[in-house]
Amino acid sequence: MADPKVGGAGASESFLVARDLSVRFGGLLAVDAASIEVDRGEIVGLIGPNGAGKTTIFAALWGLLPLASGSVMLDGHDVTSWSPARRARSGLARTFQRLELFGSMTVRENLRYGTEARALGERPWRLLGGGRHQDLDLAEEILDLLELGPVADRSAGELPVGIGRLIEFGRALASRPNLLLLDEPSSGLDPAETVAFVGQIRRAVERFGCGVLLIEHDMSLVIGVCERLQVIDFGRLVSEGPTAEVVVDPRVQAAYLGSEAVGVVGPSG
Ligand SMILES: Nc1ncnc2c1ncn2[C@@H]1O[C@H](COP(=O)(O)OP(=O)(O)OP(=O)(O)O)[C@@H](O)[C@H]1O
Ligand SMILES: [Mg+2]
User: Fold this and answer.
1) What distance in Å separates the CA atoms of residue 238 and residue 249, rounded to the nearest whole number?
2) Can you give the pLDDT at residue 130?
3) Regions in the chain scoring below 50 on pLDDT
């Protein structure tokens, strides 16, 4: 893992370092002192049962919710008080548990828009200027990488959800993120699409060198793609480490995985 903190931008610690995050909804402590690190080039799974607090952690990392305690560092900067747009400009990108696409735009237009999302930050009206900031080559490269070429000129809204998930992933990649937060990207994918998606996440990380923090219930995807897992239950981190070790951790199985996962992975991973 990353070396201890040296301090300042570009220091040798992980790109994302979130410490002791707590989030309260009234009387409910939805996230309870959870710490998470992800570096560029790493694919880390954030798993746990329904209602464990995973999406709430994403919202906290993204700056959408006030923290009851804790801090978020990006690239050595304390961003705890930063707006989501400012975090985006420092290289954080996300997809949503519920698919969010520009349905009337074509697939290509969605990706082109993605290439300028980071620069636009909280000034989307600049889009009215006619896409002066778009990186057309990058949009084409991502169309190729994700094999979206055949549907490039179709409206995103008329395509099946499996393709919609890929478009959303591609649009987030187009912002050249340092860290991509993916919230259940396989929801709506069939098993074959899920297998393909594992390869696409890997290729994207190889090509762009970004880190990925992945919330996912599909354990075949998690095991296929994540080097490391962090497991949340009732808002608390109950286990973390290399994927093959975590999936056989009895605390994890008790909290979440059930006995099936042992059969899938086996004791040696
Ligand atoms: N805006 C909100 N107001 C009040 N309670 C909330 C809010 N958002 C989430 N919660 C509660 O916080 C807890 C964590 O929810 P969260 O959506 O983070 O879980 P999750 O791990 O993402 O679950 P899932 O796997 O079902 O998506 C749950 O008890 C949920 O009901
Ligand atoms: Mg969720």
Assistant:
1) 10
2) 56
3) 1-10, 122, 259-269
Residue 51 structural domain: 40-60+87-265
Q: How far is the CA of 49 from the centre of ligand 1 (A)?
A: 11
CA 250 / ligand 1 centre spacing (Å): 24
> In this structure, is residue 32 part of a structural domain?
no
Nearest CA to ligand 1 atom 24: 50
Kindly state if the Cβ of 187 falls inside 6 Å of ligand 1.
no
Q: CA-to-CA distance for 97 and 159, rounded, in angstroms?
A: 18
Those residues whose C-beta lies under 8 Å from the C-beta of residue 247, and which sit 6 or more positions away, are 219, 223, 229, 253, 257, 261, 262, 264, 265, 269
Per-residue pLDDT, 103: 82
Residue 188: per-residue pLDDT: 85
How deeply is 164 buried, as exposed, middle or buried, from its count of CB atoms within 10 A (0-12, 13-18, 19+)?
Answer: buried
Q: Is residue 28 part of a domain?
A: no
Q: Is residue 69 part of a domain?
A: no
Q: Structural domain tally of the chain? A: 1
> Which structure tokens are listed for 84?
């989501």
Say which CATH number the domain at 120 has: 3.40.50.300
Residue (of 17, 32, 35, 64) closest to 230 by Cα position:
35
Report the amino acid identity of residue 61: L
Residue-wise pLDDT tens digits, 120-147: 654 555 555 555 678 899 999 999 999 9
Pick the ligand that lies closest to the CA of residue 32: 1
Neighbours of ion ligand 2 (CB under 5 A): 54-55
Task: Give the DSSP per-residue string, 82-125.
Answer: --HHHHHHTTEEE--SS----TTSBHHHHHHHHHHHHHHTT-GG
Is residue 68 a part of any domain in this protein?
no
How remote is the CA of residue 231 from the centroid of ligand 1, in Å? Answer: 15
